[in-house]
Specification:
This protein is 70% helix and 0% strand. The protein contains four helices and no strands.
Length: 70
């Protein structure tokens, strides 16, 4: 479900919404556990990320707006 839609609003307080949220949280937690407990997998992920992104650095919208650097 895309965020900021009526579907997301409707499912947020429902049982199926809570079930989906917990499943997503467990999936993320287990993925992080795997990455931290198996350094070779983390190294492979870093290499793949670099290959896919070409080493491009993420620039937030705030950095793109001129004149907001203080």
């Amino acid at each position: 479900v895309n965020p900021h839609t009526w579907q997301a609003t409707a499912s947020a307080g429902s049982g199926i919404g809570t079930t989906g949220m917990l499943f997503a949280a467990k999936t993320l937690a287990c993925s992080l556990y795997d990455l931290f407990s198996m350094p070779e997998v983390l190294d492979k992920a870093k290499v793949e990320f670099f290959e896919v992104t070409g080493g491009a650095r993420y620039v937030s919208m705030m950095e793109r707006i001129k004149g907001l650097d203080g």
